[in-house]
Amino acid sequence: MLSSLTRTYAVLLSSVPVVALLAVAAFAPLPFVIAQPGTTANVLGESDGTPVISITGAPVRKTAGALRMTTILATGPSTDVDAGDVVDGWFREDRAVLPRESVYPSGKSDQEVEKVNLRAMEESQHDATRAALAYLGEDPAKVKVDLSLADVGGPSAGLLFSLGIIDKLDGDGAGGDLTGGRNIAGTGTITPGGEVGEVGGVSLKTQAARRDGASVFLVPKGECSDARAELPEGLRLIPVTTLKGAVESLRALERGSGVPSC
User: Fold this and answer.
1) What gap in Å lies between CA 52 and CA 79, rounded to an integer?
2) Cα-based distances in Å from 92 to 2, 38, 68, 86
3) Distance in angstroms (rounded) separating the CA atoms of residues 86 and 100
4) Are the C-beta atoms of residues 166 and 144 closer than 8 Å to each other?
5) For residue 8, what is the enclosing H or E element?
6) Is 163 helix (H, G, I), strand (E, B) or coil?
7) What pLDDT, on the 0 to 100 scale, is given for residue 30?
8) What angle, rounded to 10 degrees, do the helices at 158-169 and 243-255 form?
9) Rg (Cα) of the chain, in Å, rounded?
10) Positive or negative: CA dihedral 151, 29, 88, 225
11) Confidence at residue 225, expressed as pLDDT on a 0 to 100 scale
12) Using CA atoms, how far apart are residues 130 and 34, in angstroms rounded to an integer?
């Protein structure tokens, strides 16, 4: 019953267990948030009229298709969630009931939570740039990357940012779009060394991806089972553990070669 909720946030969750303790909820205050599929954004495109990825210091190619990062919408840390909201969220495929402390830092105000999420996004963008340039063998002192995505916080767009940078620079030498002209979505944190980390809310993110036209979804390998739980029809899951592996899977998909699925 989201009509009773006063505020939602676009959240890129990291390592969130999907748990609803209904027995406890019946007898105590409800320390939960209600989440649903959120917005998606093509990192190869624009956000509020500004390119999501801007690169100087190296030739940039025109891209096709989409690399779509995904979010969930979650009720805010100060929003009251009652038993009706919990029961409704638990029994709907397009809702999830999550412990509040697994989504938001304890004791933080709405404004403080927003700052934490924005800082996590900034750190993720920095790591994504380092990972992409390291993969390409580009000198970060010469190639400058600016990432701009409004109104979204958290770390789990890192993989998609890195793939977008690689696609625009075409530095892997394979030529052609990483997407093969497809609408590809995904999620996953990234380290500067190119390791892909697990995130939360993947079953909701797959729904957002399919709603916005994606046919392929890149998911951290350890979360394949969660992603399969409510997998929309027509969406293929490709497991990833590293940036290099993700690029190789997308190139193999473009060639029509064998690609692992969850």
Assistant:
1) 31
2) 12, 15, 25, 10
3) 12
4) no
5) strand 8-11
6) helix
7) 65
8) 60
9) 18
10) positive
11) 96
12) 34
CA dist., res. 59 & res. 44, Å (int): 15
Give the 3-state secondary structure of residue 247: helix
User: How much is the pLDDT for 139?
Assistant: 94
What are the angstrom distances between the C-alpha of 134 and each of 116, 143, 162? Answer: 27, 11, 10
Under-50 pLDDT residues of the chain = 1-9, 14-22, 24-29
What is the predicted pLDDT for the residue at 76? 75
- Please, are residues 51 and 168 in contact by the beta-carbon 8 Å criterion? no
Q: What is the pLDDT of residue 134?
A: 96
- What rounded mean pLDDT belongs to the chain? 84
Instruction: Provide the pLDDT for residue 1.
Output: 42
Report the CATH architecture of 2-255: 2-Layer Sandwich (3.30)
- Alpha-helix residue ranges (DSSP H) falling in the chain: 22-25, 83-90, 100-103, 110-136, 158-169, 202-211, 224-229, 243-255
pTM: 0.83
Q: What is the dihedral of CA 45, 203, 11, 35, to 10 degrees?
A: 130
Sequence spans of domains, the chain: 2-255
Q: In which residue are the tokens 């996590």 written?
A: 120
Assess contact for 223 and 249: CB atoms under 8 A. Answer: no
In this prediction, residue 209 carries a pLDDT of: 98
**Are residues 71 and 205 in contact, defined by beta-carbon separation less than 8 angstroms?**
yes
Q: Is the dihedral of CA 255, 172, 168, 237 positive or negative?
A: positive
CB 182 within 8 Å of CB 210: no
Looking at residue 27, its pLDDT comes to 45
Looking at residue 67, its pLDDT comes to: 98
